[in-house]
Design a protein that fits this description.
5-stranded mixed sheet; 7 strands; 268 residues; two-stranded parallel sheet; globular; alpha/beta
């Protein structure tokens, strides 16, 4: 099994299929884990327990949403941000209503490029209504502006440059209000780590990419060789506050690394 082929196969099965959306290899592991499956936007927003009273304790996996193991062009990205898992907002269930957006999510899982969509679709302004855009735009908009200034290009051009070269990889692929625990044995989780070990770190050694381990750094470190430090292009969150903030602005270590890399290395 490998990350891209497994998710490509799963997405092909989900083109017109109903939830739950689970990677086949994970099915047995999820039987003992709390999950919930809403089949529509209406079912989700009317559910009295959509969110537990204390979101910090709500680790249920929402299997009515397409998983998000990664976003971006994984084989050609220059900036890899390593996270925990896709978060959760009620608005995520709009994918059941907006079939065109759902098609974009499936194309991302299949790693099929779309002419009218940035590979890192979470920075594409046509999806500015979605929570994922609001999250990542808030993390990167100052860096986009700084890149535009440094390269003497427009803001839309700088946004496109980052949107074409950035990819996010999640430790766990399933949406939840709070990051799941005890996932290391799940096949999907191991596939993510192995892809970073076998593909991403090779691109880092070849000076074609940088890695920003933003969340679950201790876990990601298992797959990132110890000799790859910040000077070699691997930025690890230094503390829990830095990780929670997911700071990618120009004043952060991660933001400065993004600017250095994209200023020095032309897009491939």
């Amino acid at each position: 099994m490998d990350l891209l082929s497994e998710w490509r196969k799963a997405a092909g099965q989900w083109d017109a299929g109903p939830p739950p959306y689970i990677l086949e290899a994970d099915a047995g592991y999820l039987k003992s884990y709390p999950t919930v499956t809403y089949h529509s936007w209406d079912e989700a927003w009317q559910a009295p327990d959509f969110f537990c009273p204390d979101r910090s304790k709500d680790r249920r996996l929402h299997l009515g949403l397409l998983p998000g193991p990664f976003v971006g062009d994984l084989l050609n990205a220059q900036i890899y941000v390593l996270m925990t898992n896709p978060g959760l907002e009620l608005g995520d269930y709009v994918e059941h209503e907006k079939t065109a957006f759902r098609s974009v999510l499936l194309a991302n899982l299949k790693q099929e490029p779309l002419d009218s969509v940035l590979p890192f679709l979470c920075l594409d302004r046509q999806f500015a209504w979605h929570g994922a855009f609001k999250y990542w735009d808030s993390k990167l908009w100052k860096t986009i502006q700084e890149l535009a200034s440094n390269l003497g290009i427009s803001e839309p051009q700088a946004r496109a440059k980052i949107g074409e070269t950035l990819a996010v990889i999640q430790e766990s692929p399933y949406h939840s209000a709070t990051g799941p625990d005890d996932t290391s044995s799940w096949p999907s989780v191991r596939l993510a780590g192995e892809f970073v070990r076998d593909t991403v770190t090779k691109r880092v050694r070849d000076k074609r990419a940088i890695v920003i381990a933003m969340r679950r750094v201790g876990w990601w470190n298992y797959y990132i060789p110890e000799d790859l430090g910040e000077d070699q292009g691997v930025i690890r969150s230094a503390n829990s506050g830095e990780a929670r903030a997911a700071n990618l602005q120009p004043t952060s270590r991660a933001g400065r690394a993004i600017l250095r890399h994209l200023t020095a290395v032309p897009s491939s």
